[in-house]
Write a structure and sequence with these properties.
CATH architecture of the largest domain in chain B: 3-Layer(aba) Sandwich
Oligomer: heterodimer
Strand order of the largest sheet of chain B: 2-1-3-4-6-5-10
CATH superfamily of chain A: Thiamin diphosphate (ThDP)-binding fold, Pyr/PP domains
Helix content of chain B: 25-40%
Structural class of chain B: alpha/beta
CATH topology of chain A: Rossmann fold
Number of helices of chain A: 11
Order of helices and strands of chain B: HEHHEHEHEHEHEEEHEEHEHEH
Mean pLDDT of chain A: 96
Strand content of chain B: 15-25%
Number of strands of chain A: 6
Largest interface: A-B, 35 and 32 residues
Low-confidence stretches of chain B: none
CATH class of the largest domain in chain B: Alpha Beta
Shape of chain B: globular
CATH topology of the largest domain in chain B: Rossmann fold
Number of domains of chain B: 2
């Protein structure tokens, strides 16, 4: 989680210098990616929404080529063509990320169908999306498809109670679990900021998906401590943000593991070095070439 | 005044091209276990449209709900682990529903995928029937504007089968259109017989050789134009080109012909404004080395929505009478 936090903090600095463009940070939501990914098998599949950096790191995408991809260089995982929002790493079964809200749901349903009925394997698909996505047609069509086709899909809802800067009163007429219920999909709820709790809930849900081969939802209550994306200022007050920061998943984990200030500094330093190297690697890399570019 | 006949599924089965499309899919399914059919009512459709597939590969027919956009995305998801989907969107007007899946999801996955490994193969098929406000809209030209999509529109069963085989045997996403307005009754036996060849994309077909006027068309209007040309000796010196592949577009064949004839007429079944003809004329205007003796031009449907009354359908798509008149004008 600290790695994700440090990478994103560095990327935020790079956004301000113009080396990186509009990025979507998961500050405060790291426990979700780390907790769920730690319970997935290496052969399970991931399909995610546009908040990709956190799950990408949690899944183990190499930092150098991830950084290069986000900074638009030819040495990026996807040669600079995908950028932050469409990252793909088939070797790590990080299948694709989608910018448009909701698309990941129906794509993940189809992927899960193919894994079970075409490849005939017992791997599962985990899809990450936000609470805001549950209002989108693609979420509904995707859940309907997943349920009626009975596919091994774990739906992870990063419930940060925001759609960009919009509050739930504008998009959520009923609790999210009711939406899943209407498709016959069981939903488990847990605190998304306690990584041990996330791991436990994820473990149970993943087991169920794998065994029964049908979709299960995991609604994780969390806190978005960053802006929706770098270019979109937050409307929340500092008082509200300070209150939310008390639930910072890194703080919880430090307390739980008894990590003191000194040890945190050591970790911050060593990971920070890795991050700095990744940035240097990206900076030194060439820009991609396309046939239609001016010479 | 000629009688207007409504398109009636009981009277005009117009199934020869549909049958050929089904057989093209079947040809490929036999050799390739990764090809699956997806769509609303797929199992029912295959029962009527391609009993061979229903009989031999029933487990590869996946009936999905009435959720066009979700269905396309679902198929893209399946393609991520090697499935080659044929998504049946049934009526081309429904393509509007699934524009996001077709334009935002499918080709973008290939754009990124291509840099790491092979592109995914996917076919999205639909039919055109002139029937009413939301039945009969021709959208082929819209898709020629989206990078990462092939657009195919055959005018006869033989081409349909050969082109469908190509669609399923090459990487890439193909919009495959079926013109249900093409009558079975005037399909020639030699255009039904399948020689077993795969027809490459981006290769137009020279249907009638001539040296005085280049006529370019596709789908229904190609058929009408050929009938008109072959029925009248005075029109024998027209050179008729069937595009069949709208993207990639075979400009080489068109240019070669125009260099010979110095005259170009495009006849389209679709609204002319910003259509396929517009693209051809733009390319000719930009880069033709031909000496043109008249202005190149196009003839097609007016800028209108399709009213429901069958009596108003006759003049939407250029009729044989109109085509004859337009050709005669350009020959003089």
């Amino acid at each position: 989680m600290l790695t994700i936090r440090l990478v994103e903090d560095e990327l935020q600095r790079l956004c301000l210098t113009g080396e990186a463009s509009d990025l979507h940070f998961s500050k405060g939501q790291e426990a979700i990616s780390v907790g769920v990914c730690s319970e997935l098998r290496p052969t399970d599949y991931l399909v995610v929404h546009h908040r990709t950096i956190s799950p990408a790191i949690a899944r183990g995408l190499p930092m150098n080529s991830l950084m290069a991809e986000i900074l638009g260089k030819a040495t990026g995982i996807n040669k600079g063509l995908a950028g932050e929002m469409h990252i793909r790493s088939p070797e790590l079964r990080f299948m694709f990320a989608f910018q448009l809200v909701g698309t990941c749901a129906s794509v993940a349903a189809g992927l899960a169908w193919a894994v079970r009925y075409y490849k005939k394997e017992d791997d599962i698909v985990a899809v990450f999306l936000g609470d805001a996505a549950t209002s989108n047609a693609q979420f509904h069509e995707g859940m309907n498809l997943a349920a009626v086709r009975k596919v091994p899909l774990l739906v992870v809802v990063e419930d940060n109670h925001l759609a960009g800067n919009i509050r739930p009163e504008f998009y959520l007429p009923a609790p999210i679990e009711k939406r899943f219920e209407s498709y016959g999909i069981c939903a488990t709820k847990a605190d998304g900021n306690k990584v041990d709790g996330v791991m436990e809930a994820a473990r149970t849900c993943i087991e169920e998906v794998r065994e029964k081969g049908s979709p299960v939802a995991l609604i994780l209550d969390t806190t978005r401590l960053s802006w929706h994306k770098q270019g979109q200022r937050d409307i929340r007050s500092q008082a509200e943000l300070d209150l939310l920061a008390e639930r910072d998943p890194l703080l919880y984990e430090e307390r739980r593991l008894g990590i003191d200030g000194a040890e945190k500094s050591k970790l911050t330093e060593s990971i920070g070095k890795e991050v700095a190297e990744a940035v240097e690697y990206a900076r030194a890399s060439p820009i991609p070439k396309m046939p239609w570019m001016e010479a | 005044m000629t009688e207007s006949k409504a398109w009636n599924p009981t009277i005009n089965r117009n199934h020869l091209i549909r049958d050929a499309i089904g057989l093209g899919i079947y040809d490929c399914m036999k050799a390739d276990p990764s090809i699956y059919l997806f769509g609303e009512g797929a199992s029912m459709k295959m029962h009527f449209d391609c009993p061979a597939i229903e009989k031999e590969f029933p487990e590869r027919i996946i009936t999905l709900p009435i959720s066009e956009d979700g269905n396309t995305d679902f198929a893209v998801g399946a393609s991520l682990v090697g499935v080659k989907p044929v998504v049946d969107v049934i009526t081309s007007d429904f393509l509007f529903r699934t524009m996001d899946g077709i334009c935002n999801t499918a080709p973008k996955v290939n754009f990124v995928t291509e840099t790491v490994e092979e592109e995914r193969t996917m076919v999205i098929r639909s039919e055109n029937i002139t029937f009413g406000l939301t039945t009969g809209q021709r959208l082929e030209s819209l898709f020629t504007h989206i990078p990462g999509l092939n657009v195919i529109y055959p005018s006869n069963p033989k081409d349909a089968r050969g082109l469908m085989r190509t669609a399923l045997r090459r990487p890439g996403i193909t919009l495959f259109f079926e013109d249900r307005m093409i009558a079975d009754s005037d399909t020639r036996p030699e255009d039904i017989e399948d020689p077993g060849k795969d027809i490459p994309f981006g290769e137009a077909s020279l249907v009638h050789k001539g040296d005085r006027l280049t006529v370019v068309s596709y789908a229904l209007t190609l058929r009408r134009t050929r009938k008109v040309i072959e029925a009248d000796d005075a029109l024998d010196r027209c050179e008729l080109i069937d595009l069949r592949s709208l993207y990639p577009l075979d400009m080489d064949t068109i240019r070669k012909s125009v260099r010979k004839t110095g005259r170009l007429l495009i006849i389209e079944p679709d609204i002319t404004h910003s259509g396929v003809g517009a693209e051809i004329l733009a390319e000719i205007a930009e880069s033709s080395d031909a000496k043109m003796s008249t202005n190149p031009s196009r003839v097609g449907a007016p800028m209108t929505m399709i009213p429901a009354s069958q009596f108003l359908h006759k003049d939407l798509i250029p009729t044989e009478e109109r085509i004859k008149r337009e050709i005669q004008e350009r020959l003089n």
